[in-house]
Amino acid sequence: MYVIINGGIELKRQLSENFQALEFACSHCGQLKISMELINKLQEFRNWVGKPIHINSGYRCSLHSVEIGSKRTSEHCLGNAADIRIDSTMNMYQMFTKLITIFPRVGMYHTHDGRGFIHVDTKKDQLFWINDRVNGTGKYIYFRTIPKLEEYIANTKTNWKALVI
Question: What is the 3-state secondary structure (H, E, C) of the chain?
Fold first, then answer.
């Protein structure tokens, strides 16, 4: 089931105990199409972490997606994805290991502010990735298994297990 809102007062609508529609609306146009499966899984993670989760990006209209260099077929455009962070000193890898028990697709990003964020989506094929925008090329490196991801990050300049989000 999807919630679809075309802006306005309805964006104040509560989607779950801790999330409002406004948090997931497109920053370009204010519209929203969001999967309740995504919301429910994020609420499950929010209950586990016990701290507020900041939604960097939820739904993106196709124009906004293209403007930022992404694709019109992005899971964000379909209402199935969110980029998240937590305003604390929580270890990103610890959160990643929890998120992979909830979401089939999870990506970690190391950003120039010395922190990072995590992408989650509900697409059914299992996939994990990293994107190092500081010590790497900024390219996506994909993994189908966690052991392969762990083998890779053990041999990179970035200490992925020490990053905070």
Answer: CEEEECCHHHHHCECCCCCEHHHHCCCCCCCEEEEHHHHHHHHHHHHHHCCCCEEEECCCCHHHHHHCCCCCCCHHHHCCEEEEECCCCCEHHHHHHHHCCCCCEEEEEECCCCCEEEEEECCCCCEEEEEECCCCCCCEEEECCHHHHHHHHCCCCCCCCCCEC
The pTM of the whole model exceeds 0.90:
yes
Give me 156's structure tokens: 């990179």
Are the C-beta atoms of 112 and 99 separated by less than 8 Å? no
How high does pLDDT run on average in the chain?
A: 92
Q: Is the pLDDT of residue 26 over 80?
A: yes
Mean pLDDT score, 140-152: 95
Taking every pair of Cα atoms in the chain, the longest distance, rounded to a whole number of angstroms, is 49
Residue 91: other Cβ atoms inside 10 A: 15
Is residue 79 within 8 A of residue 123, CB to CB? The reply is: no
CA proximity to 113, closest of 68, 53, 164: 164
